[in-house]
Amino acid sequence: MEAKIEGGRISVNIVDMLCSLSLEDKRSIIDTLSCDDEILADVTAQLLDGWTEAGSYGGRIGGAIEPFTPLDKARREIALRSGEVAKKEIEDLCNSLRWAKASEERLSDWGFKMYHGGPVTMLPPLTYGDTLKYEVVKREKSCPTI
Question: Can you state the angle between helices 70-115 and 37-49, rounded to 10 degrees?
Fold first, then answer.
């Protein structure tokens, strides 16, 4: 790996640097970078569309019986697990919808009592168990049973 000093700054060739790292150090960097939002956006674009936002792309031999490149392997794994991922995402969205509707109904009940002079206390935090008490959640048909 070659480092240069330019204008008071040290610069290194990132590819040379990565090639010179031990597997343990490379894994540590990968673990950190894999959680970066910009990197995730580009990796997602490459997996779904075949290239990054800037038009870069990794090696791909599409349609092979056995995936060969890491990109092919990732795309194949996503295809095989897509039902599981979709199911989890739909369940999460339905839970969020139930939570929001229960919270809205609870606030409406509280406001009605306050307006009409009923006994009113401060609203305690809403819990998941609370969401199951409200009729709007019991009637909700928009979330399929998966």
Answer: 120
- With a CB cutoff of 8 Å and minimum separation 6, the contacts of 96 are none
Q: Does the pTM of the predicted model rise above 0.70? A: no
Report residue 9 as tokens: 């700054």
Residue with tokens 């339905």: 94
21 burial (CB, 10 Å; 0-12 / 13-18 / 19+) is: middle
Domain ranges of the chain: 36-139
The average pLDDT across 72-81 equals 84
Q: Please list, in sequence order, all residues whose beta carbon lies within 8 angstroms of the beta carbon of residue 112, skipping any fewer than 6 positions away.
A: 118
